[in-house]
């Protein structure tokens, strides 16, 4: 698996498509759906990794900035951070895209 992270609208999906062809974009939104469905995001991420070892995952970094007022948004932010750590640990490569420029941070 490969993980590509960065802030919103930084060119992650375009970079992933150009370099790898296809990707699981917006993975942070998948984490939100898991929470809304009452699922454990870490368990679901483990399952995803097992079932998709060759996936290219694109995920926004949402942990920077102002802490959300709504409890559900704070829980989502925490879950995205923990899932991101798990994905990064298991990923073959991790890249961060800033202003369309990829920076390899693992692999």
SSE order and pairing:
Elements: E1 2-6, H1 12-20, H2 27-36, H3 41-51, E2 56-60, H4 71-90, E3 93-98, E4 101-106
Parallel strand pairs: 1-2, 1-3
Antiparallel strand pairs: 3-4
Helix pairs in contact: 2-4, 3-4
Could you characterize what this model shows?
47% of the residues lie in helices and 21% in strands. It has 107 residues and is α/β, with parallel strands linked by helices. The chain has a single domain (2-106), classed as Rossmann fold. Strands 2-1-3-4 form a four-stranded mixed sheet, with helices on both faces. Strand 3 (93-98) and strand 4 (101-106) form a beta hairpin. The relative contact order is 0.27.
Query: Which CATH first-tier class would you pick?
Result: Alpha Beta
Q: Which CATH architecture?
A: 3-Layer(aba) Sandwich
Quickly give the structural class: alpha/beta
Main sheet record: 4 strands, mixed
Q: How would the global form be characterised?
A: globular
Helix and strand sequence: EHHHEHEE
CATH topology: Rossmann fold
Cα separation of the termini: 11 Å
Helix content range: 40-55%
What is the residue-mean pLDDT, rounded to a whole number?
A: 96
Number of E-type strands: 4
Integer-rounded radius of gyration: 13 Å
Physical arrangement of strands within the biggest beta sheet: 2-1-3-4
Considering the chains and any ligands shown, give keywords for the structure.
about 20% strand; about 110 residues; Rossmann fold; about 45% helix; alpha/beta; single chain; globular
